[in-house]
Structures are given as structure tokens and as C-alpha cells.
Amino acid sequence: MIKINNLHKSYPMGKDSLHVLKGIDLHIKEGEFVAIMGASGSGKSTLLNIVGLLDEHDEGDYFLNGQKIEKLDETKAAVLRNKFLGFVFQSFNLIAYKNALENVALPLYYKGIARKERQKIAMDYLDKVGLKDWAKHLPNELSGGQKQRVAIARALVTKPKVVLADEPTGALDSTTSESVMELLQEINDEGMTVFVITHEEDIAAQTDRIVRLKDGLIISDELVKNKVKITE
Amino acid sequence: MFDLDRWIEIFQTLSKNKLRTALSGFTIAFAILLFTLLFGVGNGLKHTFEKQFAKNAQNSVYIYSGTTSKPYKGLQSGRRIQFRNDDMAFINDEFEDNIEFFSPNIQRANVSAIYKNEHSTYTVRGVYPDYQPLESAVMEGGRFLNYLDLKRKSKVIVIGRLVEKDLFGSLSGIGKNINLDGFSFKVVGVFNDPGGDRDERYIYAPFTTVQNLYKPYDEVDYFGFTYNPKLGVDQALTFTNTLTKLLKKKFKVNPKDQSAIRVRNYAEGTRNVQQLMFGLNVIILFIGIGTLIAGVIGISNIMVYIVKERTKELGIRKALGATPKSIIGMIMLESVFVTALAGYVGLLIGMLCLELLGARLEEYGILDPSVETSVVVGATIVLIIAGTIAGYIPAKRAASIKPIVALNDN
User: Fold this and answer.
1) Which residue out of B6, B21, B306, B320 would a mutagenesis test of the A interface target, given it has the greatest number of A Cβ atoms within 10 Å?
2) Is the dihedral of CA B310, B315, B320, B324 positive or negative?
3) Domain count within chain B
4) B202 and B104 within one domain
5) Model's pTM, two decimal places?
6) Across chain B, what does the average pLDDT equal?
7) pLDDT, tens only, B247-266
8) How many domains does chain A have?
9) Which of A210, B32, B122, B233 has CA atoms 20 to 30 A from the CA of B7?
């Protein structure tokens, strides 16, 4: 699903440039549940942004669903994002003046789906994350956990191949964190590839595979043997 | 193509961001309102001037005679100069090309007019048919004098609107006979005159008829004519100066004598009025363009601000699959919609203000302050185009920044 070879990325910092990713090789198969771990500055967010087509890489190859990503213009990137990718952000990134239902329905609007159909699909997904009764509420009327669940519903609504979550539990307490991880596990169980960035060991422990990053390089990549199963 | 979804999206954005919408709408509405008001008031001033100077044809010249004030070639001062029919022929022969309409005039004041029980006194003028355009008289009914009347020395008259009102009340005077100083004249026409009440209390009779009655020796009181409109103001002044010189020579008048032969040329006044009107037009244009520029700058600022404020939202939209085209389209459509609607509101308020205040402003020398709809609509279109461009540039920039940069914008 995601295939990365010798990926480099640097950011210009005045006269110098900051070399963030120094040759990443990563292969994620369809249906995997992967956690990227690392301290801040290790390059994990940069990696996710590149995988999510929110940013461009400088060197190396990146294949998404078998398609080589290079010199994408914004229009093509937008279409690919809409088709293949769903995002969950640490800060939720819901549109403040739209209610939960409208936020969830927005990706479908860009997909060109008719209004009634959009509303119906969005409502199904809100139901799935347990927020059917909150459909007409604005984001500022929801708790952090609820916001994140709206964001997850929004990420899922287009049935993407890959869900990218950047510190999805970073702004949440442990109880709500658990329910969010539970949701991501469910998604993964349905066959979607889930790609989580975190710096919390217990969160990472709930995934299938942990990739550790340090100073722009992968220092370890191992499967989780004793996966912490969330029990109900 | 009409895209309902897109409009719903826009209405939602606009209605959920009321302050922002109101702010940009207000700028536009205010700019158009000011534009309409200033333009209207400017036009009102213009109308006042036009009315003030509409009394007579603007290229008219009148030649009067008086008494000499200086002795010349052995002739004493105080000598009376009298125009006669041959002077009329002389002027027409000498300056055929430069003269458009020409009429000699005999003016008889305090002529008593009687119709049935009504009577009053008026000034009667004996004129040529050409006098009508000279005086800018407009026929309300019937006809003006013609050359057949002149030839036959008919006892027919054309009366001013107020004369008809005095003598006939609400009835029409055409076809009726009026007794003027004991002679019966038939009314053949009624005129009005933009020059005002005084000009509408004249009675015009054929020149020959009046001369026959009152001037036994071919005397003429004064001449009036309009110069060829093809002449510029300076050429017209040269022409009348030459004419004056020739007449002074003919009557053996000292060239420096100002009272024996007097020429009143509206060309000079016309030139001043034209300059004034030009100045006024420049000021109106300047005000109009200035207001528009202020409006354009206002809407540009607001669009830059709006796009800046929405950078993060646009980043989210892009992450969810919005193409740059859809982002630019959305912002521009919003901009055009707000501009057009607000512009229309400003236009309506402005027109309404002019309508309501119009009558009261007359005492301040502003007459009928109105704006051509085409001008205001044009101004609104200019603002809409400006709003579009003003929206396009920041929208394009916002659409082209990488989503990750937009998402991190706070």
C-alpha cells in the first residue's frame, strides 16, 4: 500500500537547511496497523505529511497504492487525498462553523456526491462513532473525545485505503484515548490500513507494528508480540 | 453551470460568519452609496447651471442701437442711431455664411390685450419665424409664425403660456381673436420658454405687421441672430467684433463708442459656462473615481483579510480533497455574491436618498440630483470586478500553499 525507498526531506532554515528525513525505507502492506514512534524532532510528523501528500519529498521514491508520487500538482494531490487517504489530526481540525454532520459530509462534497446522499452516509458514520445524537452540534459544543471521533468519522467517510493519524490521542485524557484507539482498531479490523504517529508507548503497544524514528532515520521496525488487546 | 451545492456551501459560510460578511458588504454598500450621492449632487449642480443658461440659444447674438457718446468725423455726440430694414439686408449679405437664424425685432411694451371680459397689458414683439429658435421657445400648441404671415402682413399672433392662462383661463386660446390696441389678432399658437415666467408673457406677431402698425419709416428696434454652430467660441467672437466694426463704420460711429451700437454676444457667457461645466464634470468624475478607488481598496483589504483568516480552514478543506480550483471558485463566488448584493443595496439606498432629499436641496442650488442608472450599475460592476480580482489574488495564493503550511497556520 505504502512503499518508501530512501526518502529524504529537508527544510530551508535561513541560509542552511534542516535535514529532517535522511533516507527512510518503509513498506506498509494493505491492512496493517502501524505506529510511528519517536521523540519530537525525529521526523515522524514530516514522514506522515509526506505519506499524506500534504508535503513533498526531496529525494527517493514513494509509491502510494502502486502509483509513484512525484511532481504532483495540487489538483492531482487533492484528488488522491480525497480518494485514498483519511486524516485524523491531534488538534482535530474541524471547521468551527459547521456542525458535526456537515464536517463529516465535507469530504463527500469534494468527491462530488449529491447532498442527500452525503447527509445519509455522514450520518451512518457518525452513528458508527457513537455520535448520532450530536449531529447538529457545533465542534465547540463537543468534548475533545467527541471532536476526535467526529474527525475519525470524517476520515472514514470516503472509505479511504489508508487512515493517517497524527497524535490522535495527544490532546485527550486516557479514557477517551482508549476509546479512540478502540475505534482505530475497529477500522483496521475492517481491512483499512492505519498509520498512527505517537510518542506514547502504551498507545503504540495497541498497534501491530512499531517503527521507531530517531534523527530522521529508522532505528527499529518490529511487530508487536504481546499486543495489548482492548477488552470491553 | 448552476451548482446548488456550491451555493448552499457559500450561503452557509456567509451566514455563519456574519461579522465578516457584514464588514465586506458594508464597505461595498457604503462605497456605492457615496458614489451615488456625490454623483447625484454633482449632477444636481450641473442641472442648475444648465437651467440658468438655457434661457436663450447659447449661440445667440443681439445688436441694439442707442445714442452716440463720442463726437466723430464732425458729428456730435448724443446722436441717435436708428436701424432700418436696409441694415438687416446689409448684415445678411455680409455674413451669410456665419449666420444660422436671423430676425429683426420691433418691441412694443404695454400693449393692451382684451379677450371678452379679460384684459391685461403685454409686450408685443414683431419678429421673423427664425425668432423661435433664437429664444428657445417651444410650441405647446398650434404653430409659430411663418413667412406667409410675413408676406401677407397677417394679423396673427403666437402667445406665451402665461398670456393664454391670463386671458383664457384653462381654455385653449388657439383660433380665438384677441384685441391688441384696437386691432383684432388671431391666436395661431401657444409657446412655453425655458427662460421662465417673463419670457412666457410675450406676444409674437409677424414683423411686417407690427412695423406697418407702429413704424412708418422702416425702423427696426434691434436684431437678433444665432451664429453658425460650427464656429468655435473664439471664431464667433471674431465674427461679432468684425460685424460691430462694420456697423460702426456704416453709421459713422467712433470705433471706441460703446453706447451707440451695442452687441450682446452669448458666446462669451457660453464659453464661461462651458468652462464651468467642464470643471464641474472633472470634479464629478474625480469624486466618482475617488470613491470607486476607495471602495476597491476597501474590498481588496477585506478579501486579503478574509483569506488570511481562513487559511487554516482552507488547509483542512485541501486535506479533505478540495482542489485549488474549487477553493478559488468558492472564495471568488462568495466575493462576487457579497459585492453584487451589497452594491445593489447601496445603490437602492443612494437612489432613495436622492429621491427623498432631491426636492429639499433645490434651495441650495442643487436641482433634480439624479444619477443615470447605467452609471451606478457601471460603478457596481467595476466594484464587482475589483472584488473578483481582489478575491482572486489571495485565493490563488491560499490555494497554492502547501496544505501542511495552511494547516499549521493559527
Assistant:
1) B320
2) positive
3) 2
4) yes
5) 0.67
6) 84
7) 888 888 888 888 888 888 87
8) 1
9) B32
Nearest CA in chain A to B330: A110
* Residue numbers of the domain that contains A94: 30-53+74-223
**pLDDT surpassing 70 at residue A228:** no
Which of A52, A1, A34, A41 is closest to A19 using CA atoms?
Answer: A41
The reported pLDDT for the residue numbered A232 is 44
Q: Confirm whether A16 is domain-assigned.
A: no
DSSP three-state, residue A154? helix
Whether residues B163 and B306 fall in one domain: no
- Residues of B engaging A, defined by a Cβ cutoff of 8 Å: 4-5, 8-9, 12-13, 16-17, 312-313, 315-326, 399-400, 402-404, 407
Q: Which residues of A touch B395 (CB under 8 A)?
A: none
Nearest-by-Cβ selection for B407 from A74, A93, A97: A93
pLDDT digits (tens, 9 = 90+) for A68-123: 888 788 888 888 888 899 999 888 899 988 999 999 999 999 888 888 899 999 99
Do B235 and B305 reside in the same domain of the chain? Answer: no
**Rounded CA gap, B174 and B164, in Å?**
9
B64 domain-assigned: no
Residue A230 lies in a domain: no
CB-based contact A74 B324, cutoff 8 Å: yes
Residue A225 Cα, gap to closest chain B Cα (Å):
34
ipTM over 0.85: yes
For B101, how many CA atoms within 13 A lie in the half-sphere containing its CB? 22
What domain range includes position B37? 4-52+272-407
**Cβ of A49 under 8 Å from any chain B Cβ?**
yes
Q: Identify the CATH number of the domain in which residue A44 sits.
A: 3.40.50.300
